[in-house]
Design goal:
- The protein contains 30 helices and 8 strands.
- It has helices at about 1-20, 25-45, 60-65, 80-85, 100-115, 155-165, 175-190, 195-200, 210-215, 220-235, 250-265, 270-285, 285-295, 300, 315-330, 350-360, 390-410, 415-425, 485-495, 500-515, 535-545, 550-560, 575-580, 595-605, 680-685, 690-705, 710-720, 725-745, 750-765, 770, and strands at about 360-365, 380, 435, 440, 450, 460-465, 590, 775.
- Strands 1-4 form a two-stranded antiparallel ribbon. A two-stranded antiparallel ribbon has the order 2-3.
- A hairpin with a 7-residue loop joins strand 5 (about 450) and strand 6 (about 460-465).
- Helix 7 packs parallel to helix 9 and helix 28 packs across helix 29 (about 750-765).
- The protein starts with a helix and ends with a strand.
Length: about 775
Amino acid sequence: MTRLFFLLAFLVLLSQTEVLSMTPDEFFETKIRPVLVESCFKCHGVDKTSNGLRLDSRDQLMTGGERGPAIIPGQADESLLIQAMRRTHADLAMPPKQPLPIAVVEDFQMWIDAGAAWPESGVDQSADAGRHWAFLPLRDVEVPVVHDAASTHPIDRFIAARQTALGLRSVARADQRTLIRRASFDLTGLPPSWERTVQFSEDQRPEAFAELVDELLASPRYGERWGRHWLDLARYADTAGENSDYPIPQAYLYRDYVIDAFNSDKPYDEFIQEQIAGDIIGRNGPPEAYAQRVIATGFIAQSKRFGTNDLEAMHLIIEDTLDTMGKVVLGLGLRCARCHDHKYDPTTTEDYYGLYGFFQSTAYPFPGGESVREQRYFVPTIDPSTLAAADKDFFAKHADDINRLKQRIQSETDVQANKKALAEIEARAPSRLAPVAYAVTEGNVADAKVQHGGNPSRKGEVVRRRFPEFLSLDRQPEISSQESGRLQLARWLTDRDNPLTARVIVNRIWQFHFGKPIVPTPSNFGQQGSPPTHPDLLDWLAQQLIENDWSIKAMHRLIMSSATYQLTAAHDPHNAAIDSGNKYYWRFDRRRMDAESIRDSMLLLAGNLDLSRPGAHPFPAKDKWKWTAHRQFKAVYPSNHRSVYLMVQRLHPHPFLSIFNGPNTSTSTAMRDRSTVPLQALFMTNSELVDQQARGLAESLITAGAEPGQRIQSAYRRVLLRSPSRQELDRAARFIEDYQRVLVDEGVPPEEHQRITWTSFARTLLTANEFLFVD
């Protein structure tokens, strides 16, 4: 019961943490406006004002209707809107037919209590918005000349130039044990072995560290580690996020594509192009590459689903696509421009719907939902060029028949007869049953109409598919009436003249190496974002990425070879008095391991980590898919595989990953929260997971058959990668003796003494700060 209480408390805290990370405008555009548009405007908007009440502006809400003001900013409980949503008012219930989910009502309560912020529409763009630093072309930056610099490495010279001006001085280089542990967790998310640590510590050759980095980059564990970073950004989940959170058994294919892309060092421009237009690119490439390129478009398919029906609220699905693409690739939030010209950045509503048209012309998959409990529109992974003539003929002649029969089956009209007819048709085309991917493909091509106020029922003028004017690179795409234009979009995003794409990704790579990015708002390079601490370094790194053919591994080697990366985490009073936050990198920041590294490292040290790739999750058979909004799909599948392979849901956080600040799978996560909360300590002390790994480590120590002192020595070396001091050795030996004495006094059977005692000792090391933090 106590564990359940703490878990529930944490889940509440988790949802609040997501909210607190948003600006008031972002909260409104993400949580409030979509609900108003979908559930309220049809009765209380411009076209209809039931009971004299309009809800399409803050002023209208505060004016109210026949019963008075709908909201009182700062006083949610007294606001009629909340009372109607809660259905606690004697005469009011909104919406009238079906209550809104509790979480939505709580969002509105928080919004009103916080003052009911409502971003203005039609705000004039500042005259120099287009001259914002991030929108200017990449500069050819000269590496600065720094007299008396401790290192000639270009990165170190950029860093030293800022330090010299401020009177800072870098601390010493970290020792070998610290460097191998830092690099191993950085690139693979796992600790090195004791034997490899000793070997590296004794290797004094100048090239030893570079060779270590190459070794780690060649490991399959590298793709699992850095693929997880991308999956955070891509808001990857194994469920759809609509009201019943239907599972997507094929989603893992995209996860594996990302991991393989990092392991193979797929050029970043190609990586992005495949995720935006892989289905189109695949048709013009080798047949053996077709499946992976189709699967890559899972980046788009992963857009959150809404409602209960077949691709319901398509405008919100596309909004999520655009918002994610904008933030992840360009470092720009595009969502606000759905309803009005962006309040701060030069993105206009026309820019938004110019981009919207690319995805309105795209066919999205439907994963199933409460009202339609079957998958639809998933993309076959077989290259069309390899289909036999009979298969092509099948697609041409029977596609309509198949869809019609499926609809009849769904509506329960002559179910058995229709199933038999469907089976007979499909039996004639084996390729019809080819594996499918949760991916996108070309749809009904059309330019989009502006949706006034973000309301899809209030259509305005048509906007041709195009790129944002302020980032058009002096050209707009020529798009055939027979194609969506996603291929042109993909090429524009990765054009060498695009000032944002390279800047954004090198900033992220730097962030994951140092724990903080050069641009402190890594998914917001716009005017509300923070400026770079080292703008010249940022542009120089971006140019290096492009010149090295967009190689991510080359960027790792460049950054990690710098003296700045190899500094100790030691404190320096002189520097701290000038730069207490280490903004200028005079030392290396100590960081707690993330959730995946904690779990994976414990499993590894216990001998329980399964390094194979697990494949699909064990979801229930499709004839069991009967989940609803009130009985949502929810599961946790036990696994000893790496944490990147755990099944993660949109609506139900994974119980371990969420405790240690895992990603929010409903939205792109640019930076994970690093907060430390009491529940984490409670988990480490009481959880079955930690107990199992401590037991596994203890059993391996006992099996080795050594004396207690040797076991203690071995435990320290495995977990902390160092030998214990004499004081630590003596203290641990006393702990072992005292613990066994207590077990005797408590009447515990003698054959259990060693296992229980050494498990307790192993747990003290696995939960120590020295293990959980990386210097």
